Amino acid sequence: MATRIYKTPFAATGDKEALATADQPDGKVSLQAGWTPDYELPNDNPNYRPVGRSEMNGVLNEVTEGLGEVQQNGFAKWQAIDGGWPLGAWVSHNSVVYRSTVANNTASPSSGGPEWQPVPSSSGYMLVTQEAAMGVGGGSSVAGTFVTRALNTVRANTIAGASLASSQITLPPGTYRIRAVVPANGVNLHTARFYSVTDGSSVIFGTSENCSSFAATPSETVQTSSHIFGRLVLTSTKVFEVRHICQETVANVGLGSSYAVSTAEVYATLEIVKES
Fold first, then answer.
1. Alpha-carbon span 128 to 156, nearest angstrom
2. 3-state secondary structure of 247
3. Contact yes or no for 214/186 (Cβ under 8 A)
4. What domain of life (predicted)?
């Protein structure tokens, strides 16, 4: 039998009594005490309490309403609760999922304060790489000059309106998380950028890296990668490139050295996650 999804709580239209939270002086059922011993007394005892239909309806209604809320939304809907929400709690509010950043959180997510932070979601993913035939290097670096990395392969793309053409990535409006790994070999100092061709400016700066100089020690070169991490909000469609600047010119392998052990060499890699 399939698990029931409680879109309708138990006794939704029936008569029901709200369940009290604190212990009740008269021994009545409550959230803290549950069904008290009074309900087990002989029925001729003056303190005997029968289990009422409205009481039972109220208990089951409350349980199935809360369960159905989580089943359908993934999280409880935010509401004001005694003592506030705990640190790390996730709630749904106005169709947005939030995470509590403080303990005993009594603030409302709609207040816009720091007590609640929206939880990033993903509505699309794109993975783009720079690939070459086995044994072919990543390309030549040019001293002191930004070179556009030759992104040429789409490994995955579920972002509607996103595309790759001539090493340029087109992204539609939305909020994105950007991550790129951009290697260099024997060029001494180097760094990469996520560059907006549309705006003519760098929008996310990569880490500054160092690798040994090919000119100084050609037999002992080291390959390192500049890492680009960032978040981007676009209100219109824009075109981007991954650009890379190196301190020294190294022919053919300055932008990555081959290993020749697979069917293809993979160099610069760009990962894009669309949050919304």
1. 7
2. coil
3. yes
4. Bacteria
pLDDT digits (tens, 9 = 90+) for 224-271: 999 999 999 999 999 999 999 999 999 999 999 999 887 899 999 999
Sequence-ordered strand ranges (E) for 134-263: 146-148, 153-157, 163-165, 168-171, 174-185, 187-196, 201-205, 209-213, 223-234, 238-246
Report how far residue 93's alpha carbon sits from residue 217's, in angstroms, rounded to the nearest whole number: 60
Name the token pair of 221.
């070169």
Count Cβ atoms below 10 Å from residue 263 Cβ, excluding itself: 7
Which phi and psi (to 5°) does residue 61 adopt? -65, -45
* 275, pLDDT greater than 90: no
Under 8 Å between Cβ of 168 and 241: yes
Two tokens, residue 216: 């100084």
| Entry field: residues in the chain | 276
The pTM of the full predicted model, rounded to 2 decimals, is 0.62
> What confidence tier does 30 reach under pLDDT thresholds 50, 70, 90?
very high
DSSP 51: -
In the structure encoding, which two tokens stand for residue 65, read together?
């309403």
> What confidence tier does 1 reach under pLDDT thresholds 50, 70, 90?
low
Domains of the chain: 124-274 (2.60.120.40)
